[in-house]
Amino acid sequence: MLYSFFLIIQTEEEADAVERIFQTQYNRMFRAAVSILKNKNDAEDAVMNTFVYIVEHPERFIDSTSPETIGLLSVCTKSAAIDIYRKKKRDQKSVVFDEELPDPDPIGFSDLPSFAVQEENWKILVDEIHQLDEVDRILIELKYFYHWKLTEIAELTKTSPAMVSKQINKAKAFLAEVLRKRGVSV
């Protein structure tokens, strides 16, 4: 594995520094990652991600024994481990959108019209949500049924939280209009 890193490195000095870091700091980096991730396989991934960073920025790691370099290794390793932790946590929140939607939680539905918490109107609302185009439906479901934050939805959709908010408000306005046409007072 380490050999493939050396194919990217430009100078002998940089290659030596990376090799020294691997030989002297790998265990410390691994322990730091395990302390965050509690999983050896994920910790190995975090350490390898750190080595990818080292290879991409070898000039920052030439003096492999300096306290600054060791501190930077610690920060990079912990950041890589936290990134993996967050990704795994986000993946656990993944949603199957074709399943039946959960019952409303009045606390999470403060932005939805008050009629939605009445059982007869709930079924109408869910029917109309399923009629939305896929993007609007997913946004509404993530925000109001699965309680995702705008920032989490924005990260998933690769847009800004402001754009997500705008799309959700547009979908809510459309839903309100459709529900009024069906005779539901909104």
TL;DR of this structure?
With 186 residues, the chain is mainly α. It is built from eight helices and no strands.
Molecular structure report:
By secondary structure, the chain is mostly helical. The protein has helices spanning 2-6, 12-37, 40-56, 67-92, 119-131, 134-145, 150-157, 161-181. Helix 2 (12-37) runs antiparallel to helix 3, helix 2 (12-37) packs across helix 4 and helix 6 (134-145) crosses helix 8 (161-181).
Count of strand segments? 0
Mean pLDDT: 78
CATH architecture of the largest domain: Orthogonal Bundle
Beta content comes to: under 5%
**Low-confidence residue ranges:** 95-99, 104-110, 113-117
Shape: elongated
Instruction: Provide the CATH top-level class of the largest domain.
Output: Mainly Alpha
Q: Helix/strand-derived class? A: mainly alpha
How much helical structure, as a percent, in the residues?
Answer: 55-70%
Number of domains: 2
Alpha-carbon distance between the two ends:
61 Å
Q: Roughly how many Å is the radius of gyration?
A: 25 Å
Could you give the order of the helices and strands?
Answer: HHHHHHHH
